[in-house]
Amino acid sequence: MRPRPSSPSQTISTVLLEALASRGATEIFGIPGDFALPFFRVIEASGTLPLHTLSHEPGVGFAADAAARWGGGTGLGVAVVTYGAGALNMINPVAGAWSEKSPLVVISGAPGVEESKSGFLLLHHQAKTLDSQWQMFEEITCARARLDDPATAPREIARVLDACRTQSRPVYIEVPRDRVDTPCDPVPPPVQTQADPDAVEAAAREVLKRLKDARSPALLVGVEARRQGVEAEVSDLARRLDLPVATTFMGRGLLSQEGSTGAAPRCLIGTYLGLAGRPEVRELIEDSDGLLMLGVILSDTNFGVSGKRIDLRHAMLAADGRLSMGFHAYADIPLKDLVQALTRLAESFPEPKGGLPRPPDLPRDLMADDGAIGPMDIAAAVNDLFRERGAMPIASDMGDCLFTALDMAQTPLVAPGYYATMGFGVPAGLGIQAASGRRTLILVGDGAFQMTGWELGNCARYGWDPIVIVFNNASWEMLRTFQPEGSYNNLEDWRFADLAKAMGGVGTRCQTRADLKAALTRAADEPGRFHLIEAMLERGAISDTLARFVGTIKGRNTPAPESP
Ligand code: TPW
Ligand code: MG
C-alpha cells in the first residue's frame, strides 16, 4: 500500500517547487509548451517562486545558470521547459553549466504516463524514442529523476537536488504532464554528509608539508571555491599562508574585496591566464614546485590551466570532493573541510626573494575626446563609472569583451571562461539581476548579440535595467585574430542601438570616446530601462590581453587553436 500524503493539497508539483525554494532557488526561468503547461499553471498559482519567461530556450538556460552561479554555494538555478523542442534547445547551456560546475536544475515537461503507454503512436516533439531526451541529458547532468510515481517522487526529488548542490553540476527532472497534480508527500530535508575529520586533517598536514618543503610554493584558486561557498575561507587561508596567490580565468574576482570578508590578500598577484597572461604570474605558477590548486578546473584550453604546462607530479589539486597530489589521492575531502583544516594548521611562509609581483594598475581616466574607441577605452570608461557611481556585477559573453573585462575592476563576474560558448552574456546578465536585484553591466560582442541579444526585450516586463555594452566591430574578431585570411569572419553592421527603443530600452551608438563617456553617464543617470551602448570598434582593434595571447602563439609558431 502506498503511504497517504500528509496534506491532501500537496502534489508532485507543489512539493517539487517547495523543495527547490528550500534548497536555495530564488526564481524560475522558463518557456512553456503543451507538455509543460500543467506545471506552469502550478508555478504561477502556488506563488512559491517568481516565474520569468524569456524568448528562446538557450536564453532560459543561460539565465538560470547565471542565477545559480550568483548563488555562490547556497543557490540553485531553475529552468523549466517543454519536452523535445524546448529541452533540446537547452543542451548547449546545460553542457556549459556542467563543464563550469554550475548547480542548474532542468525541469522538463513530458508526455503523460498514460499516453506514453499508448504504444506505436509517435508523440509530437518526440525525437527518436520517448527516452532520447533523457539519454541526451544523461551525458551532461549528474543526476536525473522522472516523477512518475508519487510513492518515490519525494525521495527522488531529494536525491537529485542534493546531488545538484553537493556536486555543483546540473541535474534533470522530468514531470509527466498527467502526474503534475498527483497527491504526494513533502520532500525530506537535505542529507548532511560528514567528511572524516581524521582523513581531512591528514590530507591538510600533507599539503602543508609539501608547501613547506617546496622552493617556490604558490596557491592557485579556481571557481569551485565560489561554487562551494568557501570564498571567504580561502581568502583567510591565503592571508594566513601569505604565499603568492593567483586566481584562474574562471575564478577571476575571487578573493577580491567584494564577496569576501575583508580586503584582498596582500599576496594576490592577479589572474593566471596561461599564454595570454602576464609572464610574471605565469612563471610563478608554472615554475612552482609546490603548487596548491583549490577548486581549479583543470583543462587544456589555452585560457585555462594547462596540465601540459604545470608539473602535475608536484602539484596538489583539491576539486570535485577529492585531493590529488602527484601520483596519489585522498577521496572524500570536501573543499570546505580541507580549507578550514589548512587555515587552522597553517603558518605563514617567508616572502619569496625579490618580492611579489603586484597586479598592474587598471586603465582609468578615459580621455573623453573625439578619438576612435578601442577595447581598452571601454575598460577605462567602466572603471571610471564604477569609481564614481559604485561597482556593478558584470556578465560577459565570449569574444574580446571577455578579455577586455580582465582590465576592469574586480567585481563579481559571470562568464563562460572555460566552456567559451557565445550567447551567454545578455541572458546571464538578466539572470543576475533577477537573482540579485542588482543592476548589471553586460559585455557582449556583435556576433554574440545576434544570437541572444533579443532577450533584452523581456526587461521592461520584469523591471530589469542592465547597462549593455555591445562591442560592435562588425566581425567575429576573435576568430579573425586566429585566422586572418577569408571573408567569413565579416559581419554586417546591424545598428543595434536603433533596435533598443522598439524593445523598451534606450540605445546609443558611440563613435568616439566622448560619446562613450556620455552614454555611460546617461545610463547611470537614467535607471529603470535597459541602456544599449553600441561601441563602434575598428576591425583589428583588440584588447591588450587578446593581443598578448595572439602574439605569444604567433611567436611560438604553434598552430592556432581549433576552438577558443
Ligand atoms: C555558440 C566560436 C568564438 S569567438 C567567436 C566565435 C564565432 C566570434 C565572436 O564574435 P563577437 O565578438 O561576439 O562579435 P568578437 O569580439 O570576437 O568580435 N558558436 C558558439 N560559441 C563559440 N565560441 C563559437 C561559435 C567563436
Ligand atoms: Mg564582433
Question: Topology, please?
Answer:
Blueprint: H1 12-22, E1 28-30, H2 37-46, E2 51-53, H3 57-70, E3 77-81, H4 85-88, H5 91-99, E4 104-110, H6 113-116, H7 132-138, E5 144-146, H8 153-167, E6 171-176, H9 197-213, E7 217-221, H10 224-227, H11 231-241, E8 245-247, E9 268-271, H12 279-286, E10 290-294, E11 298-299, E12 305-306, E13 316-319, E14 322-325, E15 328-330, H13 335-345, H14 375-389, E16 394-396, H15 400-405, E17 413-414, H16 425-436, E18 441-445, H17 446-452, H18 459-462, E19 467-472, H19 477-482, H20 496-500, E20 506-510, H21 513-525, E21 531-536, H22 544-556
Bound molecules: ligand TPW and magnesium ion.
Structure characterization notes:
This protein is an alpha/beta fold and 564 residues long. The protein has three domains: 12-176, Rossmann fold, CATH 3.40.50.970; 197-345, Rossmann fold (3-Layer(aba) Sandwich); 375-553, 3-Layer(aba) Sandwich (Rossmann fold), CATH 3.40.50. 37% of the residues lie in helices and 15% in strands. It is built from 22 helices and 21 strands. The strands form four sheets. Strands 9-8-7-10-13-14-15 form a seven-stranded mixed β-sheet, sandwiched between helices. Strands 2-1-3-4-6-5 form a six-stranded parallel β-sheet, with helices on both faces. Strand 20 (506-510), helix 21 and strand 21 (531-536) form a beta-alpha-beta unit. Helix 1 runs parallel beside helix 8 (153-167), helix 3 crosses helix 16 and helix 9 (197-213) crosses helix 13. The chain starts with 11 loop residues before the first helix and ends in an 8-residue tail after the last helix. Bound molecules: ligand TPW and magnesium ion (MG). Magnesium ion is lined by residues 445-447, 473, 475-477.
